[in-house]
Structure formats: structure tokens, C-alpha cells
Amino acid sequence: MVKAGIIGATGYAGNEIVRLLLGHKDVEIKWFGSRSYIDQQYADIYQNFFKLVDAKCMDDNMAALADEVDVIFTATPQGLCASLINEEILSKCKVIDLSADFRIKDVKKYEKWYGIEHKSPQFIEEAVYGLCEINREDIRKARLIANPGCYPTCSTLSIYPLLKEGLIDPNTIIIDAKSGTSGAGRGAKVPNLYCEVNESIKAYGVATHRHTPEIEDQLGYACGQEVMINFTPHLVPMNRGILVTAYASLTKDVTYEEVKAAYDKYYKDEFFVRVLNKDVCPQTRNVEGSNFVDVNFKIDPRTKRVIMMGAIDNLVKGAAGQAVQNMNLMFGFDENEGLKQIPMCP
Amino acid sequence: MVKAGIIGATGYAGNEIVRLLLGHKDVEIKWFGSRSYIDQQYADIYQNFFKLVDAKCMDDNMAALADEVDVIFTATPQGLCASLINEEILSKCKVIDLSADFRIKDVKKYEKWYGIEHKSPQFIEEAVYGLCEINREDIRKARLIANPGCYPTCSTLSIYPLLKEGLIDPNTIIIDAKSGTSGAGRGAKVPNLYCEVNESIKAYGVATHRHTPEIEDQLGYACGQEVMINFTPHLVPMNRGILVTAYASLTKDVTYEEVKAAYDKYYKDEFFVRVLNKDVCPQTRNVEGSNFVDVNFKIDPRTKRVIMMGAIDNLVKGAAGQAVQNMNLMFGFDENEGLKQIPMCP
Amino acid sequence: MVKAGIIGATGYAGNEIVRLLLGHKDVEIKWFGSRSYIDQQYADIYQNFFKLVDAKCMDDNMAALADEVDVIFTATPQGLCASLINEEILSKCKVIDLSADFRIKDVKKYEKWYGIEHKSPQFIEEAVYGLCEINREDIRKARLIANPGCYPTCSTLSIYPLLKEGLIDPNTIIIDAKSGTSGAGRGAKVPNLYCEVNESIKAYGVATHRHTPEIEDQLGYACGQEVMINFTPHLVPMNRGILVTAYASLTKDVTYEEVKAAYDKYYKDEFFVRVLNKDVCPQTRNVEGSNFVDVNFKIDPRTKRVIMMGAIDNLVKGAAGQAVQNMNLMFGFDENEGLKQIPMCP
Amino acid sequence: MVKAGIIGATGYAGNEIVRLLLGHKDVEIKWFGSRSYIDQQYADIYQNFFKLVDAKCMDDNMAALADEVDVIFTATPQGLCASLINEEILSKCKVIDLSADFRIKDVKKYEKWYGIEHKSPQFIEEAVYGLCEINREDIRKARLIANPGCYPTCSTLSIYPLLKEGLIDPNTIIIDAKSGTSGAGRGAKVPNLYCEVNESIKAYGVATHRHTPEIEDQLGYACGQEVMINFTPHLVPMNRGILVTAYASLTKDVTYEEVKAAYDKYYKDEFFVRVLNKDVCPQTRNVEGSNFVDVNFKIDPRTKRVIMMGAIDNLVKGAAGQAVQNMNLMFGFDENEGLKQIPMCP
After folding, report:
1. Which of A25, A29, A59, C111 would you call most buried, defined as having the most Cβ atoms within 10 angstroms of its Cβ?
2. Which helix (H) or strand (E) holds C177?
3. Measured between CB atoms, which of D241, D247, D281 is closest to A230?
């Protein structure tokens, strides 16, 4: 049995890692880290785990934790993982960081967009960006995984095949994304109250959201040139789910079959990516609770643009599920072990 | 592998049976019955199953189905199962009926509350009421299971221990229940439209709901006398979940510990029933997607009443999950095989 | 023009007073009190008022305010109004207190249920309980109004006629109430976050909720004897609305017409109380945004109980609307001036 | 008093016209047309109007209606108004058509996008497109108003000033729109059921939605050239509200102040259009229940694009409210008479 520790276990992403690992046949959780709730029963904080988890919340002493476990998940605010990690820890156990600390290779870019100093730039190069469908082989050998952001996961997987195949112009990409409210975290803030979110929709972080450079980096790797996009996230009154609607100009006249072939080329053997049937639009309910990514596209012959769409559960493929998928690759388990949850609908 | 057929696979309960059986290691689904969608791909109706189910919808020919499978689930409107079933079918395979056809032992009572003639009264006596926690041994030997209604499941399990132990007066029981909208089914009716349900709550079927006699029967068996209750269901703007708040007068002065002991007496070894810690109120989100029943109680020394509360997922423990639990008992599988889903929260 | 000041203008009830008074032809708001947001533009806090309110938030200096306005609304936590009020203030202007400070005549009962010391017990006797349909004449002459709680308003109006007419046994009353989330206020607390409330329902404050003695007092006045009830509130995933489902044993055999006549006796000339047609259940959507109270009942001949139901918008008739209705009475305006909003549906 | 008749009074838009006209001091409703509910009490269909409307539903005999009223609102499916209208009717009363029948000047374009034959092309030229902020003077003199679609209203008003001022390139406009579910109407269809919409988001009508040519026409008029856009609507789990997020390339380097000045040039005297403060994103909750349009923008200097955002209540400014605003102009009333509802929040 692989032993796992979670730092930040009482956030929504941490709680989801717990849900998934409890159903994983080869892993046991040894450490439920939560600075805010130290010494409280974990199942008192998340009562869905009543009678299923009998453990108290621990502090976030990563060095101590490294002696006890084989893998550490950090589901914590930006900067914490970078401030705790060191060579000794990495020599003892694998680390999967769900924060943004190691996602962006250019430390200056990270510091500019996140507004904080990076405390461990020496590990940035080594860290592998854990988008399994694209970086699978590197992930298998990694000690440190930068688990992708929720929006970047959904955006990149929706756009990747067309960009890689040169079917769209990188300079025309516009991503309009919509997220459920769990993406805003469990902090007690007025804008996240039920009555502030319910029965409303709004954009936020317009032209400034921190996931922008992460998406641009990944799209840039795909097409071999620098990419600058517009990315606009929206807050939707639902618990879970991210929907991406992306627009780009086609580089040439293409048929449905040609574009479909591009998606199939990259995804036909992927368990978690489902390229939907013609004219079926992805909707978040069809992936809820699962690690699936539903993608599809529509060619608009009038404007010579293509509309690319993708849907994920932000807490699963957008966070905890992808983290477990990364862990599976790193430890040689079946890639979908513990991740076969079927989307729950309604 | 046990072979299963589902009649009514495109209703919400049928769809949930599919979700659960796909994760059951000893069962394969051979028949997705749906009169409304014959010959259409099942995964086109429920796109959450895209790439997971490759089968077309079939008719509801129960006789033909009986030759092909070991167990039939009927998730159909009242009257259908009773109109199709016969001795030959029952001699070939087991039947788990999710409708009300075989729940009520007094056929006259059934016909009065449901307003239809019962077509197979000869099987009523044989049918076992599939509330596993109470009728486990009979279920193991049954050919025909009357799978309990959603409200009766939650109501009975919330009240049973105190009634069985004589701690409450049967004539004072009032059950105020609240249900998510999936309980109303997938029929295209104006009152179930999003804009009719959202941002509102109402009672319905006041003093006339058909689950009333079913609950009264079960409570009557528990206390050995006839019971007459008030039962008021309410429609809540959420997909899943039933919450029962039940009131009864205590028959004597009791302490918290005494009442707790009554619950523990019946439920301490039950995997699916969780008696919560003192003063923790059940909430439906903590059982969502799972087969758990969360129960608790509060003594009001001022009025000498006890408030009993229970929460289930109406589609799981209130329908499909309990059906699978019954199947597990009937076929000698572990009772929780395929039913270990951890509640998903948020 | 009557000049009004609001202490606590940035809570949900305060915000609703603003909405209503802006549409009141005889009132202008002179003071938007909000300790948390002093010197910020009120319309920056509640952007629905952008271009409609051009004023900054002020402190809660009630003495200074009394010099500037004719009426003060206090939409503040328990204890604040009692700590600020004094004879001088009351000699200068009228006060409508939306907190519980002056609702309960027995100061010991108040202090026990609220757990705080009452700072101005000398005004309790003078204060008039502002349930307009019942205490109209006293309200007209009052200096200090105790604006009723949301649950007590809906509960009392639903039950009052039957209790007053002796049709139900006061000792058997059980009130099961359901509220939208705005009733929990705008405080930044984890349990009120969108993802904690959405897709769930739960009871809270079981057998201990502070509105219990207030309801008991009012019901007691109606029947002329002490009343002890069970009151159980529930949190519902919607913004607005309270639904009360109340149960009581009938004191004699009665027909639908007799019970209907009891309701009509008290409500037939009431603008805001709508006794619905036979078998129509109140639902909160039908009163949303309005000051209406929809009530109805159902006799259960089997159990000889009656189920009484009522629906209000908790922020309007349950708080701000009733406060304005009280103000209208106190200043001699038409009782429904500024309160003719038609329920918005959907 | 102006006498009004409504054909299609039991749809959501028709119901909203009723709500608004009941609060209009110069109008009385004489005809509640609803083919589906003839002879039923209108307040039985929409119980929010209980005790407020005492009238039965009538048929859709437009000729008979024209003899009785001064203005007819048709809130009906595409094609109905065009099939009923004639010169005699228009000579007797004014007609405000909420369907798309007279919005598009090119009848071939209409017939292609809507897939039906236009029965009254002779009135297309005369009909005035009722976007009051832009066509005010023509509306005052019109007999027949084509009331704008919900998406076109919000899209056009969000983009108009920048296009008119030449600040954006018409060929780069992409509109990503999000709508509450009331926009889908009150028809009993499975995709509009609560459990199908709740907890999900999806795009629909991608590259094919019928509002596309209407938006293109209006934007074309603004910039004096043909415009081709991408328009993608999404279904959001909420009752009301449309949010538009539109993208376009700037034609030159501009400052915040310059773009703001363009909006102010067209909207500074408009009662219903609110240009929000810098960096405040429109959200639908801030306009709910009102006729306001909240717009704002954000310049992205990196991509040299501007993101334009707008929020309306789809049933008010997107349908019934704008219809009443048109009526006010046509009859010489104050433009905001009956439309001063303050947004209700939460």
C-alpha cells in the first residue's frame, strides 16, 4: 500500500482527494493536514466521511510528513508548497502540488501574475506539468508534479489537437470559461455566500486571471510559438463543473471529418477524454463526479472560425482526480485506478 | 457474472441502476428497456454514459427478458410490473420491482390509494418488502422484491428503533418530508420545469400522498398495532435527496443516552445507516450519491416529544441503491458490493 | 416627506428596506447606517442601487440620527437597538426595530433564549408587536415597534384564525418551517457559502430556535392560554421565501367550509393575506418580492388533524415589508403604500 | 386609460407583461389571450396573481381583440403574429410583437434562419425595431413594433457605442452569451426539466442560433457595413438573466477614458442603461426584476482586444419591459412609467 499525506485536506480539492483515495485499492491516507482545524476530527469538518474516516486533522509539517508517506498532495494556497519543499523531502517521497507554484517555467512570469516571490525556484525546471494526456511519460519518472489548474486543464485539452495540427491560428484564440462555485474555495468570503452567487452570473478577473499565462504556456508548447490569448472566466450558480467555449480562426478550409480526425488522433485511446458525437455539446452534468473530459467542436463556415468546447468536473479532472491520475502514473498503477467513477446525473 | 435486465432504464431511477451496476464487479447489464426510446442508443439519452454503455434501448417484453437474465429490475410506473409478471417469469429469474405494486399487503388498500386495479394479486403475499436493514433474511430467499418507496425508506429507518422499543406513541407520529426534484421523475410536465421548481418550496399531496399507507404498514409492523400518521411531502429545489423530520410524543421520560441506545441497538452493525453524533442534524448533501442513511434525533423536554431526522439520496437508498442492495442479498454477494460510493460533497 | 434612517442598511433586510422605501412616494432615506462599511458608497456594496442611491454609509449613532429623521429602522443583530435606544430618541422620532429586542414581553424569557442581558427593559411594555393584521390599532399609536420575526410572522398568520376560533388544540401544534438562505444574513460564514447550502436541505436549531418563544407568545395571546409548541426550521437552497407547514389536532369534526370561514373571518379584508382556493398549496415563488402572505389548510379526516400552510417572502413580509407596513400605519399612510409589488414569477 | 390585450399571456414573457402592466398607472389589461388555457382563470395558471387578476383566458382572435383595445402585445411563437396581422388591425390599434416576425428586414434571411414562410412580408418595412435607446424617435410614430430579442438587446447595447465610434473592428466580434432558463419558455420539454438544467451549463445552437442575423443586422446598422459574428448562447441554471461577454479587436490604441467616453456619449442620459464604474463586472443579479441594462468593458493591452459585457433581465429589458417601454413611447407616456422596479437582490 502506498501511503499518502494531504496538506490542505479541508479545502474542497483536498476533500475530493480524500474521497477518491478512499476508493483506491492501493493507497491509504496517513495524514489529513489542515492548519485551520488541527486536532479536530476530519469527519466533523466533512460529515460525508462520517464512519468512513477516523482521523484528526494534522498540521502542515511537510518535513515530518515526508518521513511517513510515499506521496504528498499539497492542496494549498499559492506559495505554500514552494515555501516548504526541499531536496530532502523530494528524496524521500513524491510531491504532487495542486497549487500553481511549479506550473510556470518562467519564474518572473509566475511572480508577476501571482504577485509573490517564489521560494524554491530551483525546483521549477525539474517539476513536470501533470497534464497526463500530454506529458504521460515524463510524469511516470517525476518526483515533483505541478498539477494543472482547472481552467488550463479544460482549455488545453479542448484546443490542443487543433493547435498541434496547425488547423487554427494561435493568435486568434479566445477562451470564454464558466465555472461552478467550488472553484472559489471554502474560504468564508461574502462574494461566495449562497445568496451572492445564486441566481446570477458574472465574469471576473477579466484580462487578468492568473490561469492566463498557464494556458498560454501550454498552448505555446503545442504549436511551437508564443501564444497570447483572451481568457475570461465566469462564476456560475452550481457546485461543480467547468465549461470552456473557445474560439479560433481556421487556417484553411476544413471539413467536419478532418477536424474530428485531429481530435481522434490524440484522444482515441484516452480513457478520460471523450470526443462527443457530431453536434452534441458538452455539458458539465455529464462529467460530474468523474475524471472525464468531454470535448467537441463546431465549424462555422460563415466566419471561418471553429468553436471548441470542453467540460470537466473542476474538482476531479480539474484538481483531485488529475492528481490521483498523476499518482497512478508515478507509482505504476493502472492510470484509471480509483478513477472509474461514473458521472452522476442528475 | 449475474445478468441483469432493466425495464424503465431511461427514468431517473433506471439510469441510477445503470450507474451502480456498471460499477458492480459481479453483474453485467444485458437489457436496457425503455419503451419511449426503443432502438435509440442508451448513451444518447444519458450522455453521462457515453463510451461506457454501447447498447440500444429495448422494449419491455418481460417474458423474453426472463430467458436472458438472472434478475429483472422494473423501474416503471405503478401497475406495469403487476401487469407483466407471471409464474413462468418468476420461475426463471428474480424480480426487483421499484414500483409500488407489491409493497402493500392489503390489495384493497393498494387499489384505493393508487386508483388502479391490481393485475397480479396472487404474488402480493410472496413478495418481500425490500427494506434490507429490517427484512434481511427474508430478502435472501425471495424471488420477488417490492423495493421500498423513497419516502417510506427514509421515514421508516428514522423512526423504527424508537417505535420498536416502545419509546414513542404511534398515534402521535407526524412526518414532514422534503424531497429533491428527481423524485418527480423525468416526465415532461410543466410543474417540473426548471423555472417552476427553482427558487421555491411547496407541500404537495397533503394528507393524500400514496406513500402514506406504505409508511403506516411498516410502522405498524414495528409496533405491532395499526398506525395512522400525517405525512406531508415537500418539493425542494435540488436534484437529489430526501430529508425526513418526524415528530412523536415520548411514552416516558428518557435521556439522550437511552434514545441513542435504541438507535444503536438496531443500527450499530449496519454499514449503510449512520447514527450521527449528538446535535448533528442530517443533511442531504452528506449522503449524496451514496447508499447511506444518516439519522439522528433531538429530545424536546418542554413538549415531551422527540424529533427524529433522516437523510438519504432518493435515487440511491431511496431507489436504485436499495434495489442493488436487495440484489446483493438475493445472490449472496457482499451486501455493499457496488455500493461503496462515498458521498460527494459539495 | 417623511425622513427615514436605517441602521444596518447593508444587511439583507436593510437592503430590502432601501429597495422598498425608494419606491415609496412619501418617504426619503436620509441615513444609510452600516458600521462595517462607513464612508463607502452604499451603491458599491449593493450594486443593484447603482445610479439610484448616491449616498455613503454612515455610523450607527442613533442619537444623532434621531435629530435628522422621523423614523429609524434598526436592522441589526439582537441587543444593539436595546443598547442604543432611550427616552430622548423616542421623544424625537419613531423607531421600528427589526431585531428581537422588544418582541418578548417577559424579559427573563428573552434573556434566557437569546443569552444576552436586555439593556432597555423599561421600553418592553410600551413596544407594540408589529404584526399589522392583528395589532393594527395599537401600531397606529406606537412610538416603538417590535417588528416580528420572519418565522413568527408566517407561523402566526397561518395558525391564528383556527386557534382564535377554538378549532384546534393548542397543545398539539407542531410547526415545521423552511426558509431560504437570505434569512441567515450576509455574514461571511462557512455554513452559508454557496457550496455548503446548494443541493442540500437540513434542519437547524431543533427544539432550541429563538423564534420559538416569540411564536408561543403570539399563539398564546390568540387562544388565551399558554402554548408550547415544537418548532423546527430548515435551510432550503433558495434565496428568499419561508414556508410553514403546521399541524394540530382538531377540537371537533369540522367541514372544509367551516375552517375556510374561520380564515375568511379574519382575513377577508386584508390586502396582504391571501387565503388560497381549495387544495391549492402555498408556494414561496408566488409571493416572491411581495408583501403577501399566502395561506391555506387541509383537513385530514383520518387523523383528525388539520395541516395549515403559509408562505411569505422572508425579506418582505418577514422583515422589511412588514416594517414599511408598520411605518405606513404609524404615519397615517395607506397601509399598502410602497408595498404593491406584484410577486415575480419565475 | 389605454386598453391593452395580450396574446400569449401564459408564457413567461406574457406573464411578465401582466406583472408590469398591473403596476402601470395609465393602462388596463382587457384581454388575457392563451390558446392553451381558454376559459381558465388566469390567476389559476399564474398564482402569483391570485386576488390581483380576476379574468379568464381568451382565445387569440386578433381581429376581435383589435376592436376592444388600443394596443396588442403578441408574446407568441414565431410566425403567429405574421399570420394574424392585417391592415385593418393596424388601423385600429398598435401592435407590439415580441416574436421575431418583424425584426429582420430581409424576408429571405428570416425565412432561412427560422425555417418558416413569412405570412405578412408587406408589413416588414413599416415595422420599427423597438430598441428604444437607439430607435426612439421612430418608435414614437410606429404602428407596429418588432420588439427585440433578449440576446440581441443585450448584445447590441453592449457593443453599439464602440462600433458606432469606430473603435472596434466589426469583423472580429465574438459574442459569448449566457441565459437563465426562463428564456427557454414554459413548454413541457425534457431538456427544460429542473433536473436536466440544474447543476449544469452547456452551449446550444452553436453557430446556428436564430438571434445571430438579428444581432448582425443591428451591428451592421451601427457601423454602416455588413457584419458577421460568432454568437454562442449558453443555458445557465438560474431563472432570469442574460450576460453577454463580447470580444473584439481594437482599431487603435485607446485609453480607458476614451472608451468610457464612447459609452457615455450614447448612454449618459439613458435611464435604463447603466455604465458601471471601472473594473466592476456586470452581473445579472443586479438587474433582476428591472428594466436596467448594466454594461462595462475591459481593455486588454496584451491582445489589443476589448471585452464588452452587458447584463439584463431577459424577461424585462429582454422582453416584457422593453415592450412596455415601447408602448410608453408610442402613447406619449414617460418612458419609464411602470418600469421603475428596483432590481431585487438577493
Report:
1. A29
2. strand C174-179
3. D247
* C-alpha A300, offset from chain centre: 29
User: A169 and chain D: CB distance < 8 Å anywhere?
Assistant: no
Question: Could you tell me which residues are beta bridge partners of residue C306?
Answer: C248, C299
Nearest CB to D188 within list B181, B193, B239: B193
Task: Quickly list DSSP for B140-195.
Answer: HH-SEEEPPPHHHHHHHHHHHHHHHTT-B-GGG-EEEEEE-GGGG-S---GGGBHH
Give residue-wise pLDDT tens across range B78-106.
999 999 999 999 999 999 999 999 999 99
Chains with at least 3 CB pairs less than 8 angstroms from chain A: B, C, D
Are A48 and B343 within 8 A, CB to CB?
A: yes
Q: What is the pLDDT of residues C68-89, one digit of tens each?
A: 999 999 999 999 999 999 999 9
Residue D191 preceded by cis peptide, ω within 30 = no
**Given this model, what pLDDT does residue B82 score?**
97
**D305 CB within 8 Å of a chain A CB:** yes
**pLDDT tens digits, chain C, 346 residues: what are they?**
999 999 999 999 999 999 999 999 999 999 999 999 999 999 999 999 999 999 999 998 999 999 999 999 999 999 999 999 999 999 999 999 999 999 999 999 999 999 999 999 999 999 999 999 999 999 999 999 999 999 999 999 999 999 999 999 999 999 999 999 999 999 999 999 999 999 999 999 999 999 999 999 999 999 999 999 999 999 999 999 999 999 999 999 999 999 999 999 999 999 999 999 999 999 999 999 999 999 999 999 999 999 999 999 999 999 999 999 999 999 999 999 999 999 999 9
Residue among A305, A295, A340, A60 nearest A159 (CA): A295
- Determine whether domain B151-314 maps to CATH 3.30.360.10: yes
Residue B55: pLDDT band by 50, 70, 90 thresholds? very high
Note whether D239 contacts B12, CB cutoff 8 Å: no
pLDDT digits (tens, 9 = 90+) for A132-179: 999 999 999 999 999 999 999 999 999 999 999 999 999 999 999 999
Q: Are A284 and D200 in contact (CB under 8 A)?
A: yes
Its CATH class, for the domain covering A2-126, is: alpha beta
What's the whole-model pTM score? 0.98
**Are the beta carbons of D84 and D102 closer than 8 angstroms?**
no
Of A181, A193, A237, the CB nearest to C188: A193
Which chain B residue shows the shortest CA-CA distance from A53? B342
| CATH code of the domain made up of D151-313 | 3.30.360.10
3-state DSSP percent of chain D in helix, strand and coil, to 5: 40, 20, 40
Contact of D19 with chain C, judged by CB distance below 8 Å, is answered with: yes
Contact residues, chain A, for B264 at CB < 8 Å: none
Q: What is the mean pLDDT of residues D162-173?
A: 98
Nearest to C239 among A188, A192, A199 (CB): A199
Instruction: Report the alpha-carbon distance of residue D2 to residue D331 in Å, rounded.
Output: 8
Cα–Cα distance for residue pair A324/A336, rounded to 1 Å = 9
Alpha-carbon distance B260 to nearest alpha carbon in chain A (angstroms): 16
What ranges in chain D are assigned the alpha helix state H?
Answer: 12-22, 42-45, 62-68, 80-84, 87-92, 107-114, 132-140, 150-164, 194-197, 211-223, 256-267, 321-331
- How far apart CA A75 and CA A17 sit, in angstroms, is 9
Longest dimension (CA), chain A: 62
Enumerate the β-bridge partners of residue A297. A308
Q: Which residues of C are known to be catalytic?
A: 150
CB A23 to CB B340 under 8 A?
A: yes
Contact yes or no for C192 and A194 at CB 8 A: yes
Domain ranges of chain A: 2-126, 151-313
**How many Å apart are CA B19 and CA B15, to the nearest integer?**
6
For residue D303, give the DSSP letter: T
